[in-house]
Design brief:
The complex is a heterodimer of chains A (310) and B (137).
Chain A lengths: L1 H8 L4 H22 L9 H12 L10 H26 L9 H22 L3 H31 L6 H10 L7 H18 L10 H4 L9 H26 L9 H21 L6 H25 L2
Helix pairs in contact in A: 2-10, 2-11, 3-10, 4-5, 4-10, 5-6, 6-8, 6-12, 8-10, 8-12, 10-11
Chain B lengths: L2 H8 L2 E6 L5 H9 L12 E2 L8 E5 L4 H13 L5 E5 H5 L14 H4 L4 E3 L6 H13 L2
Parallel strand pairs in B: 1-2, 1-3, 3-4, 4-5
The chains are: A mainly alpha (310), B alpha/beta (137).
Chain lengths: 310, 137
């Protein structure tokens, strides 16, 4: 019981993910600045932002919205992010605490943050937030099908096992999934899904600052917005970790393998940041077409390839 | 300086209100965000919603129509908030100070923390004003 609480709140769960996620978000802003030939903010900037929002700023409630739903939505978002984080991190760090079918549970838990953003946006009663919420919803509808197909491909490659721990074991005894042709195709599709789940450019139409002034988050201020930022930082660590788990054979925390594990994480983060910095924002229709037609075709080809043994 | 104050000063998010401006000050404000001047070094960034903002940048002369909107934006901001008046029009009214539609410089309408004069102020001047804002108190 105490061990479970420790897992959830401190080591691979809430606190650890939040701190590492905040650092990753800082590194992301630093890399973005270097790409644009700027100096950029300090790496600890996300922590300053978070504590400023949490401790200093006033929280304004919408006069014509549903106040309780508006305030509860960020709490549910943090819950979804931390629960998925603990389920992903435990097998990744070599602790066999999973159960059969936890990859499906992780899939559902990872949709909770986006869903609560939408609920919070619609509860605020702001028309721009409603536009942001509906765009986010269309984005979810388009990328979730691709994501479940990717998980199906992974399960097929991992000898029909639905446990995250077993998926890592299969890769560590054999080869990492990214070493095969179907694995590469699945990896490319998964990277775009991660980008959409994180709400980064090209798929940031839900919170387009320049068009709809923050979109789904336009009414959030103070500590409620701090919780949303926290969710984003946690997902910024959890989702790259999921990619490492699915395709790169997880991490090992012994000797020289620590360096390899860090390099894997840095490579995935760098890829995400570079995609984000070299692309414009897509329209909602374009994003839906991209996922529903092209990415789904891509993944189905990958699944057929892996069925044939490539 | 306590921890709260430190975090607040390290992450000021800007919201830009342009009154009846000739757009020169707007362009100079945007210059501060470019790679040459880069105010993101100090943790500042432009945000799209007044709910997220910590600093309200006001430039341009405020006429009778703008006055209502400026007050509305100021009331929508999550407090605590700092106000910076930029350019001759924002500080005093400039050449519009005696016009019939002029509704007073910014500090007659809302409390102002820092004035940055100039027509338009150079990006260096805006940065100097921001540093003064950070060292205030």
């Amino acid at each position: 019981m105490v061990a479970d609480l420790f897992y959830y709140f401190i080591y691979p769960g809430f606190l650890f993910t939040a701190v590492v996620g905040g650092l990753i978000a800082g590194v992301d802003r630093k890399i973005t600045a270097r790409v644009q030939f700027r100096k950029g903010p300090p790496v600890l900037q996300p922590f300053y932002d978070f504590f400023k929002l949490l401790l200093v700023k006033e929280t304004i409630l919408p006069a014509k919205g549903s106040k309780i739903t508006f305030l509860l939505a960020p709490v549910f978002a943090v819950f979804g992010a931390s629960a998925s984080a603990v389920l992903i991190m435990l097998p990744l760090l070599g602790i066999d605490a999973g159960f059969r079918g936890d990859v499906i549970v992780v899939f559902y838990l990872l949709t909770i943050p986006s869903l609560s953003y939408i609920i919070g946006a619609l509860a605020s009663g702001n028309p721009l937030a409603a536009i942001g919420g509906s765009r986010e919803m269309k984005l979810i509808v388009s990328y979730e099908f691709t994501f479940i197909l990717i998980i199906a491909g992974i399960i097929l490659k991992a000898e029909s096992s639905t446990s995250l721990y077993r998926i890592i074991e299969v890769q560590q005894t054999g080869n990492a999934f990214i070493g095969t042709a179907s694995g590469v195709l699945l990896f490319i599709a998964a990277m775009f899904c991660i980008q959409a789940k994180l709400g980064l450019v090209p798929f940031d139409m839900g919170e387009a600052e320049t068009e709809i002034g923050g979109g789904a988050f336009i009414e959030y201020s103070g500590s409620a917005y701090a919780l949303i930022k926290l969710t984003k930082y946690m997902l910024f660590f959890t989702l790259p970790a999921l990619i490492i788990l699915f395709f790169m054979g997880g991490v090992q925390l012994t000797g020289i393998h620590i360096l390899w594990s860090a390099l894997k994480l840095i490579a995935v983060i760098l890829l995400i940041t570079l995609i984000r910095n070299t692309n414009p924002r897509l329209k909602t229709g374009q994003a839906m077409r991209f996922f529903l037609i092209w990415m789904n075709l891509f993944v189905i080809v990958a699944i057929v390839l892996s069925y044939l043994g490539y | 300086m306590g921890f709260k104050d430190f975090c607040f000063k390290k992450s000021l998010w800007l919201f830009h209100f342009g009154g009846a401006s000739c757009n020169n000050c707007d362009i100079e404000i945007l210059d501060c965000l470019t790679s040459r001047y880069d105010v993101e070094r100090f943790g500042m960034k432009l945000v799209g919603s007044p709910r997220h903002a910590d600093v309200l940048l006001v430039n341009g002369s405020i006429n009778k129509r703008d006055k209502k909107r400026l007050l509305e934006v100021y009331n929508q901001l999550a407090k605590p908030v700092l106000v910076v008046a930029i350019g001759a029009c924002g500080c005093t009214g400039g050449i519009f100070a005696e016009g019939i539609t002029f509704a007073g410089p910014v500090d007659k309408i809302i409390p102002v923390d820092v004035y940055i004069p100039g027509c338009p102020p150079k990006p260096e001047a805006i940065l100097a004003g921001i540093v003064k804002l950070l060292n205030k108190k």
